[in-house]
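Could you join me in thinking about how sequence relates to backbone shape in a protein? Would you write everything just below, so we can both look at the same thing?
***
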Amino acid sequence: MKTKPIFNPVIVDDVPEITPDDLKNYTDKVTLIDVRRAEEFDGELAHIPGAQLITLGPNLDAFLNRHDKDDEIVFVCRSGARSGRATLQSRALGFSKSVNLQGGMLLWNEQK
């Protein structure tokens, strides 16, 4: 059964995006996918609690090929560029409720 999306993203360069403020009360209600490398995920910028580390490339491809296309997914990276690519990739595969976290972990940490 299709459900109404939690977010009403803004489209920036064809990528649906939400702000850290949009996400802050919903981290436990969405699938958070961090597409950075492991050393970044555990590094200085850390990661959003509950986020899964699924790097770009074969790992993300495998995840998208087996995951429910109706799931609400928020992609995260350092600044929003890599997660924007992941969002576009997921949208092309039919994930209608996937969005990019604008500004990535840099903006998330700045707005804590």
Q: What stands out?
A: The chain has a mean pLDDT of 95. Residues 81-92 form the longest helix (12 residues).
